[in-house]
Amino acid sequence: xxxxxxxxxxxxxxxxxxxxxxxxxxxxxxxxxxxxxxxxxxxxxxxxxxxxxxxxxxxxxxxxxxxxxxxxxxxxxxxxxxxxxxxxxxxxxxxxxxxxxxxxxxxxxxxxxxxxxxxxxxxxxxxxxxxxxxxxxxxxxxxxxxxxxxxxxxxxxxxxxxxxxxxxxxxxxxxxxxxxxxxxxxxxxxxxxxxxxxxxxxxxxxxxxxxxxxxxx
Length: 217
What we know:
By secondary structure, the chain is mainly α.
């Protein structure tokens, strides 16, 4: 089977489970990141200084401290909330909230693409600031931000190995376990790399197709 060692072949289900854990973590963290990013971006665009300060403080905190420290903070805080022993939950929260700060900045930069006339038209229709953001500004900003968002979620995917420090057996950690047993780092790491590509390439391809469709419409 493609010249793979028998022990490596026998470990494929184990690597497949690690791939599934990585895919699950990536999807859930990316969804949390997108939701969090939109909320923080909205806060930063408010006129009230307190909301802006909260948004900016969040971004500064998440971007200014190591993701692994944030993961430990979340992991050791969950037991105080009665949610101990949940490495997937801790990883999703930590990685998703960290990425949300970067998503917020991406959206904040691109929100200037929405013209003042569109905002005033929304207010004329009776929409408040939140509804104007959600129905008028946000959809346009998301479309304009797609390339940068894909780049951010690709970075998020490559951050998922941090989850191994809280005993979540994602793809990289599963690969390390198999290497320790088979002593064949080259073949195992090539399979691990292929697993990450299986997740990343469809996402990149889908966004390229969306961009091509936008250019032709």
